Amino acid sequence: MSSQEIPEEKHLPSEQGDAHHGAVAVADDPFADPGLPVHRPRIQDIDERAAKRSERTVALLFTLSMLATVAFIASFVILPVDKIVYIFPIGKVSALNFALGVSLGAALFCIGAGAVHWARTLMSDVEVAAERHEIAAPAEVKAQVLQDFADGARESAIGRRPLIRNTMFGALALLPLSAVVILRDLGPLPEDKLRKTIWAKGKMLINQNTMEPLRPEDIVVGSLTFAMPEGLEEDAHDFQTQIAKAALMIVRIQPENIKDKKELEWSHDGIVAYSKICTHVGCPISLYEQQSHHVLCPCHQSTFDLSDGARVIFGPAGHALPQLRIGVNDEGFLEALGDFEEPVGPSFWERG
């Protein structure tokens, strides 16, 4: 082999002879700590006019946040839910949703932008390096932390710049009102609507199949008829809400077979009217057994005896079905003599 193919030993570092050469290579540490860069003051640190401009900018952003929060609340109160507007390039959108989104987004953005601008231009930007220590800090370190916090509060200029402080507090105080207003959108307050239905004295019983008023002779022994209150239209916007409480089932039982005294008094010639809504979870009852006078809820098989006050004889339902007191008007049609005595549905009245 030639000398070009095999390097000579004098070109290779020896274990002892080139120890000094190896030490020089190790000393060149590519991960050496470069230290903190030299602090360069900002224009706001040396020019009070620039600091005042930044202060006014931050205050303006906080003020805009307050105005946006007020706009959010005003939009919620003023704009109708069904108003549609055209917004380029989005297209047709709900005016209420668009106004709420823009105003709330502006309120949050202005608070964030104001805080960032404040920190970048007016708060102290001096970097401080500290060695790590154990979690359980000694007393002198705790004292130092409290002192650093006090120094930071002082250097933030929050005490010397009341315009920023006051507008920030105003923006932060108003912003939570948006959340309070949003809670109102969960729906109208129930008040006593769950305790009442639209049944009232004098309202005729309307057959849900024929949409005609019912006469006593229309109800035969052993039949099951579904009825709703007079004046309730299927195309009404609140039809489902009202029928969910006012749905009625009517059966005719021989008066001598009615065991409950109150049920007999509230009936007319053996015709009894009960709520169609099961007291378990509110399913509509639709199955009737004419020999036993039992009605069955198809959801969880709760069974009620219509000849004995509609009491529960089987299943998970906790209460009897509410009965509607009925009679006959001057024209010979069946009518209600009032509303249900207790709220209908899944044991609502038990919860007060």
Could you describe the 3D structure shown?
- The protein is an alpha+beta fold.
- It folds into two domains: 43-186, no CATH class; 193-351, Rieske Iron-sulfur Protein.
- The chain has nine helices and 13 strands.
- The chain has helices spanning 19-27, 43-46, 48-78, 95-121, 139-155, 162-174, 176-183, 239-246, 261-265; strands spanning 84-87, 91-94, 205-207, 224-229, 248-252, 271-275, 287-289, 294-296, 303-305, 311-314, 323-324, 326-328, 334-336.
- The strands form four sheets. A five-stranded antiparallel beta sheet has the order 3-4-5-6-11. It has a four-stranded antiparallel beta sheet with strand order 7-8-9-10, with no helix packed on it.
- Helix 3 (48-78) runs antiparallel to helix 4 (95-121) and helix 3 (48-78) runs parallel beside helix 6.
- The chain is elongated.
- The chain starts with 18 loop residues before the first helix and ends in a 16-residue tail after the last strand.
- The model is unreliable at 6-25 (pLDDT under 50).
